[in-house]
Amino acid sequence: MKEPKPNRVMLPAAVETVPGKPVQRWSAARKRDVVLRLLRGESIEAISRQIGIEPYRLEQWRERTLAALDSALKERPEDDPLQAGLGAAYALAMFAAMMPAMAAPKSRPYSCAGTP
Fold first, then answer.
1. Is this model's pTM higher than 0.90 or not?
2. DSSP sequence for the chain
3. Mind listing the pLDDT tens digit for each residue in 2-60?
4. pLDDT of residue 106
5. Termini Cα distance of the chain
């Protein structure tokens, strides 16, 4: 039997945090599929038992997904015509608000100190 090389690190086949339960890494696609099941109305307890993930973690995935969905739906593209129209309307309103002050006639011209 061959001896392992001294500079080579031997990794265990599966790392265990809880005895008998290996650590699983969940890809974004797998998490998405689970969250979609939750959003369709499947019981969180049933899914938790089936896939071996704690219910609180499934709730976290669902809440993060809904927050990301809200954020994505609020985004506006840079070339959004509605946003451009609002910007122009705001500038026009500000200009109109400043016009009366600029156009109002002065009651008397400014005078230097000491002159009537």
1. no
2. -PPPPTTPPPPPSS-EEETTEE-----HHHHHHHHHHHHTT--HHHHHHHHT--HHHHHHHHHHHHHHHHHHHH---TT-HHHHHHHHHHHHHHHHHHHHHHHSPPSS----TT--
3. 555 544 434 334 444 455 666 678 899 999 999 999 999 999 999 999 999 999 999 99
4. 59
5. 114
